[in-house]
Specification:
2 copies of one chain form a homodimer. Chain A is built from 10 helices and no strands. Chain A is mainly alpha-helical and 189 residues long. Chain A has a domain of 129 residues: Tetracycline Repressor, domain 2 (Orthogonal Bundle). In chain A, helix 8 packs across helix 9. At the A-B interface, helix 9 and helix 10 of A face helix 8 and helix 9 of B. The structure holds a DNA duplex (30 and 30 nucleotides).
DNA sequence: CTATTCTGCCTATAGCTTTTAGGTTAGCGG
DNA sequence: CCGCTAACCTAAAAGCTATAGGCAGAATAG
């Protein structure tokens, strides 16, 4: 029988695409098998079990996000960097809703440590250097930025901002503006 | 055979409790049937199907949250009200993680309209009256507050803020402080 | 170029879940 | 006490995860 050439990587990537199409919660081993036109049991040669596949998709998403964030921050600082980083998360969530959801799968300790998660915190902290904020305010600010980015993006995805004027792009710009003034206010400069 | 006395309400309530114990995603019709020591098929006399049960749990959570928010806002204004409302969401999410997750289930249009969702937006808007912010800034601010509250609470639940000093309570207080100064700055007063 | 080994994918199977169809019986209204 | 409603049942179909073991295509050794 024609071999399809499955590998763990291809499975994870296909799972990520499937997540974007039908939602991360609906990514099932059988759906994945159907997509490769392969028996479900064949997948188990490449992934230990289904939860493992899900965390691998999460790790992929976190890594892709970290790549984009690294690019976006290169050569920028201050509000420029703030806007760029915020847009990385928002754009990624809109282009790849399933992957974005996967990125917020709760990982066990080892997986979390091996993931690009800590890198995200470091990048946000790096962004704050442009505002010159001392500890412990810097940590608080990292958490605030993470909360706003994640909260805005998920509420937007739920459709929370689409039912009334003004449109979401305006609120997003306003929000980034507000964060910038807030951070400048806390600056020790 | 001894009748247990199932009703839709009891099922939904038990589902909500189950969600808090094992996670909203793990609330299954069979788990619910086991909890009542009843055959699974018996549930279908009280709920049309499983998705309906999930949305009913979501509606319950949204209503409970709205109740708490109403109480919290009564007689308060300004930063006092801001802190009270924020704490409603954070405390609810920590006491009832499964219900909180349920509250962010994406509902179809009719269910969403019939839910307490819009009420939450109205309450946040009411809170802003203490800051006297004109449109369209008020709408932007409603969305910002929603984003911060939801984002902070979910990142905290994921364990994102528990791995390093300062502890989460301090960041939360700092965040509410920051929001207050931000809103006062935008005040037209 | 053949023989052997490895392994990618298979079928079969078991246990769990959701959902439908239809039967039985408890317990109330008359 | 009779009968009706509805609460709960068993049976069964269909889909999902996971394990075990088999076959044949591909890589490798000689």
């Amino acid at each position: 029988m024609a071999r399809v050439g499955l590998t763990t990587e291809r499975l994870v990537l296909a799972g990520a695409e499937l997540a974007d199409e039908i939602g991360f919660a609906n990514v099932t081993a059988s759906a994945l098998a159907r997509r490769f036109d392969v028996a479900v049991a064949s997948l188990y040669a490449h992934v230990k079990n289904f939860p493992e596949l899900r965390t691998r998709i999460a790790l992929l998403a976190l890594a892709e996000l970290a790549d984009r964030a690294t690019d976006a921050l290169a050569g920028r600082s201050g509000k420029d960097a703030l806007v760029a980083l915020g847009n990385v998360y928002r754009d990624y969530a809109r282009e790849h809703p399933g992957r974005y959801a996967a990125a917020h799968l709760t990982l066990d300790a080892e997986a979390a440590a091996a993931s690009a998660g800590p890198q995200h915190a470091r990048m946000t902290r790096a962004l704050l250097r442009g505002y010159d904020i001392a500890e412990p305010d810097a940590t608080h600010a990292v958490r605030l930025l993470g909360s706003v980015f994640h909260g805005y993006v998920t509420l937007e995805a739920e459709g929370g901002f689409s039912h009334s004027a003004p449109n979401s792009d305006e609120s997003w710009a306003w929000t980034l503006d507000a964060l910038d003034t807030l951070l400048r206010k806390w600056s020790t400069k």
